[in-house]
Each structure stands twice: as structure tokens, then as C-alpha cells.
Amino acid sequence: MTSETDWGGAPSVLRMILGKQLEELRNRAGLTYEQAAMAIGVSHSTIRRMESAKVARLRLADAEKLLQIYGVKDQQEIDTFLKSVREANKRGWWHTYRDVLPDWFAAYLSLEQAALQIRAYEAQFVHGLLQTEAYARALLGAGNPHAPEEATERRVALRMQRQELLSRPNPPRVWIVMDETVLRWPVGGPEVMRAQVDHLIALNALPHVTVQIMPFSNGPHPAMRAGAFHLFRFRARELPDIVYLSGLVGAVYLDKADDVLVYREALDRLGAQSTPASRTEALLGAIRKEL
Fold it and tell me: In the list 35, 69, 143, 242, which could disulfide-bond 31, CB 3.0-4.6 Å?
């Protein structure tokens, strides 16, 4: 069962881990959804939702009853599981930004905060974890032109708080490949872009951050039809790698092995075809002189 140190700390991700553990325990006990549901007085769809982490919170009483009917007798295991349920039911820090945070993006933040490794391809703008405050403000203002200034500032604050994971103890391994287009878009004007490039150079020097650029001169590449995408890997053995694809009004999360493999291989090829990370500083420096 899960411990306090193997999942990363994001509530909805912990619910995913607990759900998979409940599924494993139910299967080991030889019970169907219907039998488990009847034993605790809920519908079979509730059991399915619990196992797939599609419930807003896990009821402590339901979890305890399920452990009993699944044959878990070790009290320490039970106590650890129930403690994890309590943790999973807490709200993430981003809940305070719910006034400017779409529901579908809250799931992304949970994945990002819990990840052991974050890999991504960005086709149009600097990854949110790597943006300066001025760049984020200009970008978010352009993306939400009718939003009140206060709402924009709230979104900027949320983005800056996300970045705190880069400086926390045991930060995730972050590897971002960006199309050269990203650095040619005049977001916020030359001064903002120069500061953003300087920030990328500084971040690329961190041992847990890798920034690579896909130059125009390389021509077509493996992600030219895909647009931006993100791949998360976690410490917890129960969790598969997850791919995140975003849109204007929602997002898609992929966790089937065959689907994830396509994106992982695309990232591998992108990394191989992009400028090596050891030359990123020189390339960024050359681009900065043109800004």
C-alpha cells in the first residue's frame, strides 16, 4: 500500500493511487463491482468511480469497509491507507485560485505537482514552469483579452506559484523541447523577450532542468502535427505515465500504454533532433542578440 513518501503530495493523484490499490485488493479478493458495492451499500458505479479516481473525495467509512471485505487485516496497513484517504481529501493549494482556474486544468496541476519527471514539447510559447512574470502577464493578457486586470494578475500569481516546485527539495526532472517559433514570437516586446531568454539560460543551468530548441533549419519533425503536449512520470508504481493534451475549452489525459508510447517516442526523437542541451545557452544567446 501507499506510504507518505511515494506519491508526491497532490490530492487527486493520491486518489488515483488509492483507487488502483482498491481495484487490486478487490480483484485479489475475487469480488465483482456489484458484490463490493452491495457489501457497503452503494451502487456498482460508485465502486467504479472510486477505483478510477472520478470521485471528488473518498468517504473514510466506505474505504474502511472495503478494506475489511477485501480481507485486509494488518492494522498498520489499514491505518496507513486511511491516513492517505484523509490526505487525498484535502484540497490542493491551487484551490484558492478556483475563481480563475478551469476545472479541467486543476487535474493538470495535480499531475505536475506530483510528478517525478515532466517532459514536454512546446510549439508556440515558453512552458509555464519556465516563464518570467512579465512574459506570463503578456501571454495571459493576450489569451484572455476581455478579462479584468485583477483576473489576469490572479492567473499570473498562479503560474508563478506553480514554479516553486523547481526550487523545492527533490524537485522533478524537467525536460522541455521548444520550437524556435517560441522564441520568435514577440510576447510583451523585446525587453520582455530578452529577460525571458536570460531566464531560460539560467534555468537550463540547473541540474534538474533541460531546455532544448528545435531550430527552423531542421525542417519537419516528429511533433509537427501534434502541437504542444506533456508527459508525466510518477514515483508511485501504481501510476502509469500520463500524457496531457490541452485545448481552448478542455483537456485530454491519456494513460493507455500504446497511446503514451507514441508520445514518449516522439519526445525521444525531438530530443535527438533538437540542439543538444549543452549548446542551448549558445543558441539562446545568439537569438537574444537579434531581439
Answer: 35
Residue percentage of the chain with pLDDT more than 70: 94
Q: Which residue do the cell numbers 502535427 mark?
A: 225
Task: Select from 173, 135, 145 the least CA-distant residue to 267.
Answer: 173
Q: Is residue 220 part of a domain?
A: yes
- Residue 135: pLDDT above 90? yes
Coil/strand/helix, residue 213: strand
Residues 53 and 117 in one domain: no
Residue 5 pLDDT > 60, yes or no? no
Containing domain of residue 243, as a range?
Answer: 93-290
Residue 210 to residue 276: CA distance in whole angstroms:
10
DSSP class per residue in 108-165? HHHHHHHEEEEEEEESSS--GGG--HHHHHHHHHHHSTTS-HHHHHHHHHHHHHHGGG
Q: Are residues 115 and 189 in the same domain?
A: yes
pLDDT exceeds 50 at position 128 = yes
Pair 36, 142 in one domain: no
Q: How far apart are CA 101 and CA 49, in angstroms?
A: 24
Grid look-up 537579434 returns: 290
The values of phi and psi at residue 213, to 5°, are -115, 130
The three grid cell numbers given for residue 34, joined into one nine-digit string: 456489484
Residue 1, pLDDT score: 53
**What is the β-pairing status of strands 229-234 and 251-254?**
unpaired
If pLDDT is split at 50, 70 and 90, which confidence band does 103 have?
confident
- Cell numbers describing residue 139: 501571454
Cβ atoms 77, 138 nearer than 8 A: no
The Cα 188–Cα 4 span in angstroms is: 43
Question: What would the grid cell of residue 180 be?
Answer: 524556435
Give me the chain's average pLDDT, please: 90
